[in-house]
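User: Hi! Is it possible to get a structure for several chains at once, not just one? Here's what I have:
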Amino acid sequence: MAKHAVLSSGAKMWRSLPCTKAELRLDLTLACGQSFRWRETAEGHWTGVMGGRIWTLTQTEDSLWYHIYKNKESSLEDGSDRMRRTGVSVQIESKPENRIKGAPKKDDEEPLAVTSVQDTEEEKEMLRDYFQLNVKLQDLYREWGDTDPHFRHIAHIFTGVRMLRQDPTECLFSFICTSNNHISRIQGMVERLCQALGAQLCQLDQTSYYNFPSLSALADNNEACLRDLGFGYRARFLQQSAKQILDTHGIHWLDGLRSVPYLQARDALRTLPGVGTKVADCVCLMSLDKAEAVPIDTHVWQIAKRDYNYASGNAQKSITDKIHRDIGDFFRKLWGPYAGWAQSVLFCADLKKFQKLKETPHQKHSHKEETGESEMRAACKKSKRKTEESKTVKISMSACHKKAKVFF
DNA sequence: GGACGACCTGC
DNA sequence: CAGGTCGTC
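Assistant: Yes, the chains can be modeled jointly so their relative placement is included. Here is the combined structure:
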């Protein structure tokens, strides 16, 4: 049976992009409640579905590594279709002689990948797009920190928290599930939603992976079925919103909201059942390119009051529309056009599961942390730096060891 | 504009 | 109660 990929095992093919941990922290970004579909399948390895493919991601200090699994049936067909269209010839990227000498060939190793150069470039572009790597997060952190001492304090530890650019449909219907709910339960619900209504892609170890359901799958499903799966009153919202989109706007409507102004997109979303101000702001920020959208929930309201001495609206019992507007404007004035990105950093830093990161005083990983392994990683990094970008690397930690010995 | 209760379920 | 929304007053 196919297994989850691990970078150090050398059993799967990995590629990489240059990307520092200051620009991206997978552990924070993928588990802070933006997307609910990534799981840590091995230490520092995150597996999830994105763009119709299953990915395992991991990172070293300067690189983002990724492995893509072959889907059950579709991929070969897709590939040949594409080649017929573009006339690009096939090339074998991972030749036997590229295998590290002495590395044992695993039984479960995949057949050598048959991939066109265009596929590879397309996959890299999907990653860059999903993580919005064109946005220089370090520069933004510096700007936010310059005008906001509290942000500077938090940002020192919570580096690399970056906004994902999610699929609008997945984002919308995931966030319809978030009302009156908490992350762990939301994760389970979204998973069951994909299991029940999404197309199966393939199975790794004991886990099956599915695409997020299409609008029509969501619309055609009846409420009772979803209620049985534990969605509660949200079952009706999911079905009705999907139906409303298809009936009154059409299948491309959501994607089209990427190119309309923030407030217009937000109002459009709010016409859907189960979508209020908070969910609409989440969808705007996380899938519709509205970096200025600042989703205000009870949690963010607490942050505003506690850390920013935010007083107006203190009399109110719950978050009113006016408080939404006022706090949103407050943060937009403080942080500027990427206010939503900054908010996600503070939100992440406030999550219970990340509190332990605050405990250890943040030593710049200098002496103590430099164990033998990280030295070898550094050596490994040096050795491949020149050829890293867009080069297929099939390498294992044992290879790093070898190179380390050469270097030192 | 703001307050209130209901809405599903599970920890 | 929990990372809300809706209908009603």
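The first helix of chain A runs from residue 26 to 29. Residues 75-107, 364-408 of chain A have pLDDT under 50 and may be disordered.

User: Great, thank you!
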